């Protein structure tokens, strides 16, 4: 077993590799979002958001969560060092991805008219939604290939596949938005998905596997284990995606498609930036936690270590985004999106509670306690939808952000007490201190930015961001020697 210092370094290494490429993905995404906002406007962004929600809804409902359960299965069999066993499970994963991808394709084609009527109030978008079926298939195949790389802990290859897929998709899709405007949304999304699939295939095909005789029926039986665990992932993802679908319907019922575009912009920013950490965390953290699933003491220790690093890296980022929300929306989209600034600030503050719950919630799946995962997400989304629905007359558009934060608090409470029951989990003393200090800072900066405006507010807020960044950097240096890592990195480049 790793000692404490090595464990922190492993966390930092995987976070650095995946997080670094995710940052590049974000920079590329900034260009893409900016072009979309300028060329398509808020309504075009809203249409693209609804299309993506439909894709996610069908993919989650028909994918059986194999992109996630596959990671767990591959990670488990890789520990056996048995090439035949590993090859067999890789083949099963690939066949299930092909089958579920085709299943999702047929579903979205069959229900395309219903999706159009329910989403837009008419059947005008039926043909466009039919073409979205291509994305369901290609993204399912791509996700399984990324899952294979992650399960085998080929973190660098996985990160490169995600990065190059994003670059290729951006290069081929942006001209379509330029030439065709809103009519280029679906072709652009399709080409982006195809590029991601091709790039992930290039990296995953390098994995050498032995020949294994495996019939279709055997593949189905062997894959049922993944599907059983994946069932919880399916329900979980479906609940989250359905929630966003309902939220967008609520916005349209009160306001317009343009307002959906404002919400889409906020949701994209808040989820994209937080996913830098979450994806970096899951890349190596989930396989490692899976290997410790039968050792509560070791798994709880790893959870606290991961949470500590996540808070130190994520908190300054969240505080900075709360302060810079107006600038961020202007840079990433346009001045017309300024109405969404308060919502973005509420959601970035709410993301602090996502940072708390994610390292803990991964234990559900590593211990095959998927029902807790479903209950946790259902509770969070039910609270969120209910708050937005009933509080709209009091808070209007801002209820979207307030509800997100409060739902995050509810989720953290449930996750903590359920993990205490499952594995006897307790926050470490240092994490309790960080949660109190960082949580107070996030809420204080949020309140300051919402209640006051002007250069003095920005000056003070930037000062707080700077102080927390320095503090977190020093703490990370104590844990993993981050200064020396940076010095060594530049020394190697100069030599």
TrEMBL record:
It comes from the Bacteria. The keyword Iron does not apply. Coiled coil: none annotated. The chain crosses the membrane at residues 96-117, 129-149, 161-179, 185-204, 225-247, 267-286, 307-333, 345-366, 378-395, 401-419, 431-449, 455-473. It is a multi-pass membrane protein. InterPro entries: Poly_Biosynth_Transport, WzxE. Keywords: Cell membrane, Membrane, Transmembrane, Transmembrane helix. This is O-antigen translocase.
